[in-house]
Amino acid sequence: MKTIVKMILPILLMAALAAFAARKFILEEEKGPHKADRVTLFGNIDIREIQLAFESSGRIKELKAEEGDQVKKGDLLGLLDDSAYAAQVNKLKAEIEAQQQIVAKMESGSRPQEIEAARAKVNALKAKVKNALVNFRRLKKLAREKYVKEQSLDDAEALFKSLKAELNAAKQQLDLLIEGPRQEDINAAKALLAAKEAALKLAEKRLHDTKLYAPEDGIIENRILEPGSMAFPQAPVFTLALRQPLWVRAYIPEPDLGRLKPGMKAIIRSDTYPEKQYDGWLGYISPVAEFTPKQVETTQLRTKLVYQCRVFVCNHSDELRLGMPVTVEIPLDQEPEPDHQGFCKASKGAE
Fold this sequence. Notes:
By secondary structure, this protein is of the alpha+beta class.
């Protein structure tokens, strides 16, 4: 019996030691590869894309970029046939110039020559009215004595009244010339001028929109349309992959959530360039928890909650590509910095 116990006891002891070692290994695996002074995350490079389209409609005249071309902000990428838009701009410019002359004429008022001509006409009509009145009175006296016919008297009276009415009209015209255009008419002419100027600005913008410019630095990922195609604001012409900002989409396990804060500096490494490291910083931590996505490789249990985060990375040599898996290490012996503007430039200078 004692012999059996002696034989079983070492076996039980070895089994206990094996169980303890296995338990310790499991605990170590649950803790993951994180060291006490840093947190290690796993993620993928994420890049924003922009669908570039003309803001005006028309037939594409020329495209100046190919797939894979690196472009800078403000580079001209494409042109539409702008003949119709240019003609509209020229037409409105001519109309505005004509309307400006009308407004200037109305604001200047009548010319002195026009006023003098109207005054001379009034004086001439006054003389005619005076002569007609004298003739009418003479014929009226003679008509009483039956020396002239009644018809002659009526003709003289009609001529006098006609000249008098014409004189009154000439006086009114003279007063209008002296007073000048009505303020309401001047305001209406100015309003019409402003409307034409606004239409010109819209036409000029449409003419400018026949050119497609790069909104940011990036790489032409896709060239969707070709010269000769009809372009519309809803139809993308290029897909532009932005070079900056570049970030890593990673997930923070719930136990490490309290150890990380936005603004902390990070070190990023990739499998493609294992000898290189890239500087970055933790820019965003999601306020909402989620289950670990299956495509994220981490030693944490799959059922544990994680928080999506965004780690910005400086990609000076343009080596990191969309979807590339990377490892992120965030040292814990640091204080988060609220502003990382210019961080990548400083990091490039340090290289």
